[in-house]
Amino acid sequence: MDATRIQPRPQSGADAPPLDQSPSRHPRLDQHLAGRYRIEALIASGGMSDVYRAVDEHLERAGSPDCQVAVKILRQALTHDADAVSMLAREASRSMRLAHPGIIRVRDLEQDGDTWFIVMELLEGEPLSRLIQRHRPRGLPWKGCRWIIQEVLDALEYSHNQGIVHADLKPSNVFLTRDGQVKLLDFGVARALAPQQRMEDYLAPRQKDETRMFGYTPAYASPSLMAGNEPRPHDDLYALACITHELVSSRHPFERRELTDAERASYPLKRPKHLPARVWRVMRPLLRQSTPECSTASWKSAIRPRPWRVPGAAAMGGVLASLTLAGAQAGLEMGSDTASSPEERLASLGVLAEDAAPQRILAALPALTDLERDAVLRHREPVLSNYYTRVLTQATRGLQQGELRLVPEALELAQQARTLYPNHSAITRAREQFQQRRTSLVSALREQWHQQLAQGGFAQASRKQALADLHDRLTLLDAEPPLPQEDTRAAYRAELQEAMTASRESALSNLVAVGDLAFGHDADTSAALAWARVQAGFSPGNPSGDAFGKQLDRLEERVAGAESVAELNAAFEAVQELPAAESGHSKRLKSLHQTLANRYMQQARQRLDEQRLESAGPLLKRATDLTHRAQASP
Description:
By secondary structure, the protein is α+β, with helices and mostly antiparallel strands. It has helices at 57-61, 82-97, 128-134, 142-161, 210-214, 223-226, 233-249, 261-266, 277-288, 296-303, 313-329, 342-349, 358-364, 370-379, 381-400, 407-420, 425-454, 461-476, 486-502, 505-519, 523-536, 546-561, 565-576, 583-609, 613-632; strands spanning 7-8, 32-33, 37-45, 49-56, 68-74, 106-112, 115-121, 124-127, 164-165, 174-177, 182-184, 191-192.
């Protein structure tokens, strides 16, 4: 198959591909494509195309930190082959339809003269095939590869729901990035399911099918594919069964042999030592092809960690045994007459109940002794780790789509999980993926901030609104906007001075709002901004002008629309910065304080219902303080 779009780790010895990457062998180095992409280095080479690391000079000039891309260029000998060009175009169009964090992001298909190429994100890491090689001959432990299979299943489920079968899934097409992500590569032979084919599926006349022209990878192709049938979702799951077998044993289930149906039915398949029996019960019929109709749901159910159950006294005894042993080592008497026994304490707190929610368990921890806490954390680890990883994973996927609703809770839980389970691999991986996504989004929003400022026009209402929206999103991410550059500060000061000289009140109102958002820390701007406040009518000495009323309008909207604690905190900070209003606005300011108090109380009650006592406390205090402030106002 075709080259993988990667930035590989340095290789040496037997692991190095037979590829001479010297510039003399690759004349495209330092070339420019489409007047935009500067070729820097060859990454990989395949039968149809070469893949290069390149720089998007448009993004580079804009100061973007993510200006490096991967460029997949169709081999010169194939540029006039309609089937080859059609296959490249189809790969691009289908990949661009698949917006999922587990699938490589393709930006565009472009043409420069007779050169056809795809532009996509640049990945750093290694393919799964290299991970399997490094763990020969024993394979990976199940805990070390379960999360990889889970990520692949998520990506396949999404792809199948979009009507696209990968059709060439294999270890070299599964990529592990350095920041802990799993990405599916190379949808070059991917096929659209018949009911969902689109116009771009017919980009060029096809005299023969690409999958027959370029072929599947036989070791991972199901018997149905090898027989020339149309690809179906279960073909990808068959390939995943082969990959899973290799991961846990470093051996292909059929030793990469092509088997007849009779040979396959009698082949001595054995469950790898590291593979749980429940997973083998799903994989074995799939490999035999005795029941090929498998689903991602059955796969996910099989690989999901078993939830911890409390089989009556046995489970209670396990916890109590831990407590008794630890207490004996510490010289303590467990279950004395002067205090309730550990059994009674843990039962009263409900942490061992079969249906105990993870929030309830976490809320009970402060009431436990150190010994009880350690025992509960150890025995309820499956429940709590699943909870942490689920919330962090959901927040990470939300960040991928620009959805920030779960970020405040995820930030709180990430810190909590780091304290309770500092060395838990699955939680650490989920936390790092979340933080990486958060960092990427913060970087993108800060870049948008610079771009908004660089456009000037600070008196425009649209500019003020755009900056206010970016400021709110950064606040949700627990980040600050970047400081403006000197030329931007100079442009703002010039526009502010011109508006003050011309006494343009509406412009001054917007300019002051923008100044508060972006230029409040600039010493060279602060004096002019203070005079502009006076002239606009909402200086600290004269807050009752119309501009102050507009500030209240916007704050009331922010408080009413706040859906998270982070959004409430951002509104609270803005309210704190307001000066004391004169009689014209005192009632509105009092009402704003009470509304804000009520919203904090709602958030606190929600956390109390979820038994999240630690996080509810500060919210209750703030609600009480705001209520007292509102009541004390005239």
